[in-house]
């Protein structure tokens, strides 16, 4: 009888140790980084940057404001538009992304997502969107959208239905104002509106695994009279490089991360 109790205790202890080990691994501390500029490129100061991304090595940008909203392919070396789509003044354009051969462009409060053929920017149609449109990205399976709250939504690109959502949480607390999004190496990178921070988020749980401080990038001498907030993350899968900018900023910065 005593031997049986001993065996049970040993087994319980092993299960407890295994549970504690898994819990400890799940609670790894958040990593903090500083973004360092390794190069900078001209950025059109008329661009109120909302969406920024690379597709097959080519840079694209969607810009906002009523009467100023555009989508453009950008020459990274000059900041000039190689092709450009201008929107009716009643629309305020937000995030954008390519999925397959289709371009998806969110509007802010109109409840619409426009769909285009990327080659030639031919209009294909639109979807109803039941939330505010902020950021837009893709993991290659779903579209990923933000609405300016602490929630991120995974959306079916075929019918724009919501598949699931996660709440972004940093050290146990929700983070609001999740804005422009990018999907990099299995993680969601997100601007936090009105800050110069990027969050690196686990897409399964919403847990913030890293915080990137970008406040040192945009030096006083780089600023223009029109400068607005930090916004825009673009990952070039061709060479693994990452670029950031801001609304009306004069420069696009290629960055590398240094852990604090």
Automatic annotation (TrEMBL):
Assigned keywords, A-Z: Signal
Gene Ontology MF: a single term: glutaminyl-peptide cyclotransferase activity
Keyword flag Signal: yes
Superkingdom of origin organism: Bacteria
Pfam (any one): Glu_cyclase_2
InterPro entries per the UniProt record, alphabetical: QCT, Quino_amine_DH_bsu, WD40/YVTN_repeat-like_dom_sf
Transmembrane portions of the chain: none
Gene3D superfamilies noted in UniProt: YVTN repeat-like/Quinoprotein amine dehydrogenase
This protein's record includes keyword Signal: yes
Annotated signal sequence range: 1-24
PANTHER family named in the record: GLUTAMINYL-PEPTIDE CYCLOTRANSFERASE (PTHR31270:SF1)
UniProt protein name: Glutaminyl-peptide cyclotransferase
Gene source species: Candidatus Merdivivens pullistercoris
Lineage: Bacteria, Pseudomonadati, Bacteroidota, Bacteroidia, Bacteroidales
